[in-house]
Specification:
There is one protein chain. It is built from ten helices and six strands. It is an alpha/beta fold. It has two domains: 145 residues, Rossmann fold; 76 residues, DNA polymerase, domain 1. The protein has a six-stranded parallel beta sheet, sandwiched between helices. It starts with a strand and ends in a 9-residue tail after the last helix.
Length: 231
């Protein structure tokens, strides 16, 4: 039996992309209501273009959006967007169904648990605490902690060192092939693809296991043969 499970955060434990999409839609509607004369579909398109250029964690998305579409950052529009975004985030941000049950079960089985994420430290901890997950983890390694992203394997190595577990005794679980699976393999871990959060259709690197629901993970860790032939 493995000694540790290293989880990705976004789209593995929490549904980050769906929440982001709902928040953006709410912000767009709020700006329309207070007077921005622009097609909502076009507004969302510009916002996602900015995210594509600046990164999905870009903190000044509405400032940049308003400068792009109107040449200035109007306070009424900005506050409407930010307020609607935050309200929707507080309302919808949750862990995937069954996540806490799985984490409790793994803890009872004696696994050490960690989060390894490419999110900045402050945002990662907001999501972890907001989803009510902080009490389950023995270690959290963010991009700020590691000083690099997961694709080179270093963040996984840092987490294992904190846990006092060797790579042959650990599993990496995540939705990103290029970061969670490739990075996990480079660090010597068994890898599990959280396909329920994965947008990739083809994989350059094959995970050791694939799950379509986080609740399948317990069976893999208790009885690895239960998933033979499914990956």
């Amino acid at each position: 039996m493995m000694g540790a499970v290293l989880f990705d955060l976004d789209n593995t434990l929490v549904n980050f992309i769906e929440t982001k999409q709902r928040c953006i839609s709410s912000a767009v509607l709020a700006m329309s209501r207070v007077g921005l004369k622009m097609n909502p579909i076009g507004m969302e398109r510009v916002i996602y273009q900015i995210y594509e250029r600046e990164g999905i964690e870009y903190p000044y998305i509405f400032n940049e959006f308003l400068k792009t579409v109107s040449g200035e950052v109007g306070k009424r529009l900005l506050e409407a967007a930010v307020g609607a975004y935050r309200t929707e985030k507080a309302r919808t941000f949750r862990a995937y169904y069954g996540t806490q049950d799985v984490l409790r079960a793994l803890s009872v089985l004696g696994f050490k648990l960690a989060i390894v994420t490419d999110a900045p430290s402050v945002k990662a901890w907001r999501r972890i605490c907001g989803a009510g997950l902080s009490r389950y983890f023995d270690a959290v390694v963010t991009r700020d902690d590691a000083g690099t992203t997961k694709d080179n394997g270093k963040p996984f190595e840092i987490a294992l060192e904190i846990l006092g577990i060797g790579p042959s005794e650990a599993v990496a679980v995540g939705d990103r092939i290029e970061r969670d699976i490739i990075g996990g393999k480079r660090a010597g871990l068994t890898t599990v693809l959280a396909r329920y959060g994965c947008s990739a259709l083809h994989y350059e690197e094959s995970p050791d296991y694939i799950i379509d629901d986080i609740r399948e993970l317990t069976n893999i860790l208790e009885s690895p043969q239960a998933m033979e032939g499914n990956c």
